[in-house]
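Fig. S4 source data, part A: sequence.
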Amino acid sequence: MEDLKEVFNEANKCLKCKNAMCKKACPINTNIPEFIDEIKNNNFKKAYYILKKNNIMSYICSTVCPYEETCTGHCVKGIKSEPVNVHKLEKYVNNWANENDIVYKYEVKEQNNIKIAVIGSGPAGIACAVELATQGYKVTIFEKENFIGGLLSYGIPDFRLKRDAIVLLEKDLQNLNIEIIKKQEFGKDIDINSLKEKNYKAIFIGIGNEIPTVYSLTNEKCEKIYTADYILKEYNSKKVVNNLGKTIVIGGGNVATDSARAAIRMGAKNVTIIYRRSHEKMPARDVELQDAINDNIKIIYNTKVTKANLKEGILKSINCIKTNEEDGVLKEVLNSEFKMDTDSIIFAIGLKPNKRILENEGIQIENGLIKTNEFNQTNIEGVFAGGDVMQSKATVCMAIFEGKKAALSIINYIKFNS
């Protein structure tokens, strides 16, 4: 959406509902009718301030969040006609602010010199840090990588999210006097005890998921079986995984489409996504599937990869079998086996937390995730958590919600224990 007339036409579709379902469907409670009303009044600066005050990652959310399930998807106009494209208006306002050098200055309470540690600079960690910093707390973010952002920098490719967004985000954090210390790995360079010894009064853990889920396809050593997190990290670091050739991606989520599209850009001859369930059950967003198809990526449904066939250590083909669902149970179809030639395989079937690190720190785990109470507090006194590390399949906007919620819990915890 670039034409100003189109922007006004879209904004004027908004009914400014008193009981705005779009706002209720937003995990972070974005004041949607109000920011759209400012667009109608040709006050883009005020619209931007409304968005930015609520969410420092407003531009990022307008770009990567599943709007069809949240704001736009719950617009009442969408019941009988076309909904207001909230996400497009949000992105336009953010782009307008950037092009016009508009900077939102957060209201920050007087510094109280109470130190809070935030481990991990993904969406949850950043949201937590911002909430605490604006309330006067002295916040330090510890990040194990060279760049902040977590999955925003290393998991979402630049053809979906511009790297400039992360640069601007880091400037926003610096303007809030949030200290960012990089190359600090949890469980190695820092731990809970060392942070407490340095007088951090509370600790937020937002390290995300980093251990890829895979299953065995061969007992032989094969250099051409990769994981999606590796492929995406290499791509986002402007590196190339050479000689991918004919590539098979196993999985059905947005990470599968992202890694497939990254593989194409790395020079893969052709890429096929294989998903074990139907199109209707595929978790990837329709818009991401269509982008993958536009990149000439083939998608095969109701198929399971069972084996990788190697010759002298070189991957040659895979064995597959067709599947179907009976009463929600996935079953293999008898006598439906077939082979496909391939040069490389990418697993994109999920990530899980680093159980070893968490257990070494004494953090309680339940169903593979950090166990927290309703206030995001772990079993360890003064230690909180949020994002992917405690919530399965969290979106960016849900991670932001958890980070904000944890920050409020930390503030109440410190007040109660001071």
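Fig. S4 source data, part B ends here. Residues 303 and 322 are 4 Å apart (CA to CA).
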